[in-house]
Amino acid sequence: MKIIKINKKEWHQGLDKSRKEYHLFGAVKDNNYYLIKELGQEQYPEMERPCAFDTILSPKSVIFPQTEKMLTADLDESQPDHHIMKRVETDYSKKAVLGIRPYDAKAFQILTLNFDTKEYKDPYFCDAMAATTFIGLAVNNPSQFDFSTSVGTGPFDEEGLDVLLVDVKDAYLAKVLTKKGEKFLSKSGFDNAADEKDALLTIEKLKKTAEKSISSKISHDKLKDKTILELYNAPFWDDIAFACINCGTCTYVCPTCWCFDIQDETKDNKCIRYKNWDTCMSRLFTEHASGHNPRGEKVQRVRQRFMHKLKYFPDKYDQGLMCVGCGRCVQHCPVNIDIREICEQMNS
């Protein structure tokens, strides 16, 4: 195990060195919130942000953009290759996402189960993942919405990360987890090796304190044994759906939602095919060309969302829930629908 000690006074200088090879992404303050954005030449990620004001949207958009050009075609029939769709040229040079929370890194592993399989590989997602290095930041002070320890991750979890940074006041202890992570630190000029024994003791102490401070927990131990119809026909769905306004906020802020729509746009003699995030909360999501809609009622859409996260996904993949416990959907739902309470209802 290799652990590098990074003096915070040298952090910006190191990031400037890394810009020669990497496009940097990180949290940037936008009014009262934080968003993940590509950083300009003299811009640095907000690493000291309080967890209660974590990024509204997860870093998912770095790999799976909200809107992405897929294919393009020339509609001019005088051209030899007219009406032939071709993949849009995209820059897949190296990226580094700085200060990503451990639960958000875990979310990318869940997305990979859908976009990178033996049968099907989404080239846009796979190429972006291959080009990206994830530099995590442990959560020393979890928010009131954080229930990550209940769903197989946690404030110091290392899954999906290339480096885990641990804030120790005047420095970061950088736990090197992969070759990609080691290369990023090397390019940044961070090479001051910490005393491994002392560093691991410090990290373990902070980890235990952070995990102990998480009071929000959920139970899902019985979900696997319940039949789909037992949960599908449960009596509580009308009550849960009553307040929902189908705004889709829960799906857009969720780091594990992977649904998308494809649309073609034409202007003059050019056609572009786009991939756009979609939401199962929308009535149009399941509307057929015939006009029939198998989930035309609000309660059916609400039930679908939670059945997918808490039942369909665990049954299909046997990888736990389709949730990393970040709490964004709880924090930002305008009508206070809480996935923790619904999970408890389903489980009991």
What layout of secondary structure does this protein have?
Elements: E1 2-7, H1 11-18, E2 23-30, E3 33-38, H2 60-63, E4 67-74, E5 86-87, E6 95-100, H3 102-115, H4 123-131, E7 132-137, E8 163-167, E9 171-176, H5 179-187, H6 196-213, H7 228-232, H8 237-241, H9 249-253, E10 260-267, E11 270-277, H10 298-317, H11 328-332, H12 339-347
Parallel strand pairs: 2-6, 6-7, 7-8
Antiparallel strand pairs: 1-9, 2-3, 4-5, 4-11, 8-9, 10-11
Task: Name its key features.
348 residues; alpha/beta; 2 domains; seven-stranded mixed β-sheet; four-stranded antiparallel β-sheet; 12 helices; 32% helix; globular
Order of helices and strands: EHEEHEEEHHEEEHHHHHEEHHH
Tell me the span between the first and last alpha carbons.
42 Å
| Unreliable parts | none
Q: Identify the quaternary structure here.
A: single chain
Number of strands: 11
Tell me the domain tally: 2
Main sheet attributes: strand count, strand direction, barrel closure? 7 strands, mixed
What does this structure look like?
The protein is α/β, with parallel strands linked by helices and 348 residues long. The chain folds into two domains: 2-60 and 91-213, no CATH class; 223-347, no CATH class. Helix content is 32%, strand content 20%. The protein has twelve helices and eleven strands. It has helices at 11-18, 60-63, 102-115, 123-131, 179-187, 196-213, 228-232, 237-241, 249-253, 298-317, 328-332, 339-347, and strands at residues 2-7, 23-30, 33-38, 67-74, 86-87, 95-100, 132-137, 163-167, 171-176, 260-267, 270-277.
